[in-house]
TrEMBL record:
This is Tripartite tricarboxylate transporter substrate binding protein. Belongs to the UPF0065 (bug) family. Pfam families: TctC.
Length: 321
């Protein structure tokens, strides 16, 4: 009888291990991989989240910067990590949606290998023109663009800034020549000098030029107007119903987390998003802290994003290879 009980105990042990591990989680410091260089806005976001998560979970959350490959290097590291809840990713629309659409060979499958736990902030974009462009609104710019070629500045192929412009071009029936710059600063310099006529830029970087009347904001790309630019209409209000484009950042983990661990992580992230200090800090930078969403709402958002951008990528023939 003793031998039989021992054998049954050994058979039952593997079934209990995942639950036991979940109950003891987190058992060590967590790692938050930020696939961008230190010092930027995304890095600041990651470090603020790490501090709040550490407070919620009772373990240090260490930020690890893994830049390169248009977020692929850091994203791959998390996609291949053990799904035990101790490795997290500062995810984005680029890593979860756009890279898989524009890169033919990518070392991870975002849908299969990663689980998006939180859409933390939205980074709105604004359609801005330089001082040489005689257009006060989107309708006037569209009329000009149908009369003569226009150059649009971007900071790469297949990123949100580029694709927001392509979505407008498809919606308006105009052709824009994409001119790629190595960053927002040189792109804005080109816009100010008249080398390019328009840019769909992150609000954070264009806002000082808009407030100094050096650039003219024609529209924002979000569903609703922005508190930092309340007088600027949306693209939808400007004659393009349904137009919406922005970049977003959130937190993902390797797929296959134990259910209790995933639930606890979602709770901790939701608490961070509700934190008044966190909201105030990033709202003041032109980022819109999002209300917490459940798993079903996040899945719906991801499907809509893939559908929207896959259509743009296919119709415009956009590829990084």
């Amino acid at each position: 009888m003793t031998t039989r009980r021992a054998a049954l105990g050994l058979l039952a042990t593997p079934l209990l291990l995942p639950e036991a591990r979940a109950q003891s989680w987190p058992s060590r410091p967590l790692r938050l991989v930020v696939p961008y260089a230190p010092g930027g806005t995304t890095d600041q976001l990651g470090r603020s989240l790490a501090e709040l998560l550490s407070r919620e979970l009772g373990q240090p959350v260490v930020v690890e910067n893994r830049p390169g490959g248009n977020t692929v290097i850091g994203t791959q590291a998390v996609a291949q990590a053990a799904p035990d809840g101790h490795t997290l990713l500062m995810a984005s629309g680029a890593s979860m949606i756009l890279n898989p659409l524009v890169m033919r060979r990518i070392p991870y499958d975002a849908e299969r290998d990663l689980s998006l736990l939180s859409v933390t902030v939205e980074t709105p974009l604004v359609m801005v023109v330089g001082p040489q462009v005689q257009a006060r609104n989107v309708a006037e710019f569209t009329a000009l663009a149908k009369q003569r070629p226009m150059n649009v500045a971007s900071v790469g192929i297949g990123n949100p800034i580029h694709l927001a412009a392509e979505l407008y071009a498809l919606s308006a029936g105009v052709e824009l020549q994409n001119i790629v710059y190595p960053g927002s600063a040189p792109a804005l310099t080109a816009l100010l000098s008249g080398d390019v006529q328009v840019m769909f830029d992150v609000v954070l970087t264009s806002l000082p030029f808009i407030r100094d009347n050096k650039l003219r904001a024609l529209a924002v790309t979000t569903r609703e107007r922005l508190a930092v630019l309340p007088e600027v209409p949306t693209l939808a209000e400007s004659g393009y119903p349904g137009y919406e484009a922005s970049t977003w950042f959130g937190v993902a983990a390797p797929a296959g987390l134990p259910a209790p661990v995933e639930a606890r992580l979602r709770e901790a992230l939701a608490a961070a998003q509700r934190d008044a200090g966190f909201r105030q800090r990033f709202d003041s930078l032109g980022l819109v802290v999002q209300p917490p969403r459940d798993a079903a709402a996040i899945a719906t958002m991801l499907r809509a994003e893939r559908e929207r951008w896959s259509g743009v990528v296919q119709r415009r023939g956009i590829s990084l290879e």
